[in-house]
């Protein structure tokens, strides 16, 4: 297949054409030519105004529910949502049934992506059944292709077990992904503890439940000299702790969800169950700190925390609604809407470059002879996400019918092209 991309701004620091507008010719999955004007017949010509091309985007935390919860999402529908959102590499959390905790389930997930323009990278469970009691067989999963380890939606509560996990993965240079929540604090909390929770009469989850875990985990990281990634940071204090740990030279990184950059707890005044998430939406002050954390480099990457829920888990009283929202298809647009002045270079760092470095994903480059692993997008114009354009099997999104900045044009990976409509 021959694909001709016309007049695209190349944003890739490793490319000799970085910052230049060029035509790109891709033949059988390989970039065969990059030039000012390429005149040739092609099976597909992509020519969009203000087009930008970067290395393919990477999401480090998504839930596809299969096996076990296919009524909410399947691997196929999750991949469709990811590709529509501009992603070519997707990390999948282990909270399925059965849990992703052995070689066979890792291989089952990876086989689903064969021949698709997306790469599935399972996160192996750090503990058996993600229950936080005994370590899982991480070496076996690493050999089978697990990209990292962690208990996904269940942050590891035991300090002793986390210590063992950090020591274990160090032997094969892997990373532990941790959701920072102390479940013994604010056990029944539904939203952030503060003025809004008091006004709404809802039990609150204090931010200290996040800070305590991060402080503890940093101490354990310092002791083990291993690698730790904190996902879904949600408070200004969390960023201070992580920034200080980075200054000490620890191998720590972090990610933020798109919705923690977009919404605050003040947006919950209508009890919208689609805004019920974990960690909860925090204050406007925290939102501002998170946005600054993206711009100053404290936050390394965007994690969608794509978490489909069946309609009956959201069409109920706020108290009984389940946590989670759809995010893969809108992550880029939400990021650009929350930070409209963000540079193209910073966008690509947050969506691709940094995650590749942190998790040792082969860093592709946009040059002649390289395999095409690219995302096509524009940071101008807008996108309106609708139920009709939604690729997920579920509908739990607060972004339906909102006008969001930017547009994903498509992806090219594994000699396959996927264009958004």
Description:
By secondary structure, the protein is an alpha/beta fold. The chain has two domains: 2-52 and 368-382 and 404-419, Urease, subunit C, domain 1 (Roll); 56-358, Metal-dependent hydrolases (TIM Barrel, Alpha-Beta Barrel), CATH 3.20.20. Helices cover 27% and strands 22% of the residues. The chain has helices spanning 75-84, 103-111, 138-144, 159-170, 195-200, 208-224, 236-247, 258-262, 284-296, 331-338, 344-358; strands at 2-11, 21-27, 30-35, 44-46, 52-55, 57-62, 87-92, 119-124, 148-149, 176-178, 191-192, 204-205, 228-230, 252-256, 301-302, 374-384, 403-413, 416-419. The mean pLDDT is 96.
């Amino acid at each position: 297949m021959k694909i001709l991309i016309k007049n695209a701004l190349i944003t890739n620091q490793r490319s000799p054409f970085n910052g230049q507008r060029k035509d790109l010719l891709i033949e059988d999955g390989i970039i065969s030519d990059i030039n000012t004007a390429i005149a040739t017949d092609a099976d597909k010509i992509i020519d969009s105004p203000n087009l930008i091309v970067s290395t393919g985007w990477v999401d480090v935390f998504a839930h596809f529910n299969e096996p076990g919860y296919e009524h909410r999402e399947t691997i196929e529908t999750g991949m469709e949502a990811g590709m529509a959102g501009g992603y070519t590499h997707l990390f999948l959390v282990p909270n399925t049934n059965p849990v992703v905790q052995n070689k066979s389930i890792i291989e089952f997930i990876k086989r689903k992506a064969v021949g698709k323009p997306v790469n599935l990278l399972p996160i192996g469970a750090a503990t058996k059944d993600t229950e936080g009691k005994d370590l899982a067989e991480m070496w076996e999963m690493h050999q089978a292709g697990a990209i990292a380890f962690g208990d996904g939606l269940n942050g590891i509560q035991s300090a002793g077990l986390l210590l063992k996990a950090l020591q274990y993965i160090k032997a094969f240079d892997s990373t532990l992904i941790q959701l920072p929540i102390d479940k013994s604090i604010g056990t029944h909390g539904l939203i952030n503890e503060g003025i809004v929770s008091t006004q709404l009469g809802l039990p609150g989850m204090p931010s200290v439940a996040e800070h305590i875990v991060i402080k503890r985990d940093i101490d354990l990281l310092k002791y083990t000299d291993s690698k730790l990634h904190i996902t879904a940071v949600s408070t200004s204090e969390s960023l201070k702790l992580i920034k200080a740990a980075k200054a000490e030279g620890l191998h720590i990184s972090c990610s933020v969800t798109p919705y923690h950059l977009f919404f605050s707890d003040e947006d919950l005044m209508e009890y919208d169950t689609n805004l019920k998430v974990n960690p909860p939406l925090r204050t406007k002050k925290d939102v501002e700190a998170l946005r600054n954390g993206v711009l100053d480099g404290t936050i390394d990457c965007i994690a969608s925390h794509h978490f489909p829920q069946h309609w009956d888990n959201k069409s109920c009283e706020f108290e009984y609604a389940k946590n989670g929202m759809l995010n893969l298809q809108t992550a880029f647009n939400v990021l650009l809407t929350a930070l409209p002045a963000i540079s193209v270079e910073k966008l690509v760092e947050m969506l691709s470059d940094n995650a590749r470095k942190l998790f040792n994903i082969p860093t592709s480059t946009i040059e002649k002879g390289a395999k095409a692993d690219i995302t096509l997008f524009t940071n101008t114009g807008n996108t309106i996400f609708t139920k009709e354009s939604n690729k997920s099997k579920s509908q739990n999104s607060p972004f339906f019918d909102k006008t969001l900045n930017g547009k994903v044009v498509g992806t090219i990976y594994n000699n396959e092209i996927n264009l958004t409509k």
